[in-house]
Model the fold of this input.
Amino acid sequence: MDWLSWWPAEIHASPWLLALVGLCIGSFLNVVIYRLPLRLEREWKAESAEYLGVKVDLPEEVTLSRPRSRCPSCGHAIAWYENIPVVSYLVLRGRCSACKARISPRYPLIEIATGLLFAAVAWRFGEQPVAWLWCGFVAMLVAMAWIDWDTTLLPDNLTLPLLWAGLVASTLGWTIPLPQAVWGAVAGYLSLWVVATVHARLRGEMGMGAGDFKLLAALGAWLGIKMLLPVVLGASLVGAVVGIMMKLTGGLREGKYVPFGPFLAGGGLVVLLAGPERVAGWLGWR
Done:
């Protein structure tokens, strides 16, 4: 049974349409990337204070919709016409309209990257309803990659929904066969957990966090067990190169490590857009 047959035929997944949608989703992802860690930090402080029976000064409560976006330098509330993806940044020449403080170019870059990735998904799957599903997968990976890079945190709020969504999509016949998804999730989690546990026993410290285990489990649920090795190999290779470059340039953060999540997400995107058959060919698998 085609579980996506209900999708309106007039709503196509053309590259141009998904690129436009991706720009808008990218703007929302900027909010998620910035605010979700702040919200979680506040919740953790409040829970810890309640558990210990002490009073602490909590930061301002934020959600994904409140308060309104504002300039961090002067507090100017950003109007809707100042928040149009990419266009507003260009019109404002990358500066706040009130205080002229510089706006990070990262915001339009994330919007553009998300738009390009959505268009690439449309190219990969054609004008099929399932392309919209994979765009959701892409958006989650973009958000998690940037959050992990900024904070070394992979929130359960993102990893676990992505994992369960992959299993549900497989059950409904939208992606890969269910056994591949289930074993992909199991192998994804256990493989990194074993590596981290052995590292901890030998070195006395964890080499990676549980968020990495959950992210790879989610990738396994969407891409299947056979694609886990290419994802991990690609992520490890690129991560090692970036880590060496950062070490040589003095860019390593305190603790001298590089978060692994962004590279896992990047590996997942490469496998998705290249396709399992092409990836298998790169590795010489038959």
Summary: The radius of gyration is 20 Å.
